[in-house]
Design a protein that fits this description.
With about 150 residues, this protein is α+β, with helices and mostly antiparallel strands. The protein has a single domain, classed as START domain (Alpha-D-Glucose-1,6-Bisphosphate, Chain A, domain 4). Helix content is about 20%, strand content about 45%. It has a seven-stranded antiparallel beta sheet with strand order 1-7-6-5-4-3-2, with helices on one face. A hairpin with a 2-residue loop joins β6 and β7. It starts with 10 loop residues before the first strand and ends with a helix.
């Protein structure tokens, strides 16, 4: 008899940073358009607003991925031209997902962009959780590299 993996709640973080050779304004314009994800985030088919608000705290978006899955996210913090933080309220195998995308100007024509998140899972095995964290890390990295190539054109 194979003993099944113990399912529990797990907590972790994912953080990816990339240097982009573009002005802070140009980078901010791109990332602060919270419904503009299909142009740079991996496997996003559509992003639509679920709120009248388009920017800042209280803006809500619904992301639909190419596989049909959907995630609803609410902006909970916003500092113009610096960062915004959002939480996922539906669509992930998680109890909590809080993410921040931040822009730090390095020179007049380059920035450091960081995408980081805090994750608390629903009940799953440790192996499943570690695989999920690895997936999120590669999802962030690939999306950031895609954004970099678009903004550096």
């Amino acid at each position: 008899m194979v003993k099944s993996a113990k399912k529990a709640f797990h907590t972790g973080t994912v953080k990816k940073t990339i240097k982009i050779n573009a002005t802070a304004d140009k980078v901010w314009r791109k990332i602060s358009n919270i419904a503009g994800l299909p142009s740079w985030v991996l496997n996003v088919k559509t992003t639509t607003y679920r709120s009248k608000k388009r920017r800042n705290v209280g803006a809500i978006r619904l992301i639909t991925f190419e596989d049909g899955s959907k995630i609803e996210e609410h902006v909970v913090a916003w500092k113009d031209k610096e960062y915004f933080t959002y939480i996922a309220t539906e669509g992930l195998p998680l109890r909590a997902y809080v993410a921040t995308i931040s822009v730090r100007r390095k020179t007049k024509t380059s920035v450091e962009l960081t995408w980081q998140s805090y994750i608390n899972s629903k009940k799953m095995s440790e192996k499943q959780f570690l695989e999920f964290l690895a997936f999120m890390g590669s999802f962030y990295q690939t999306s950031l590299e895609n954004l970099k190539s678009i903004l550096e054109r």
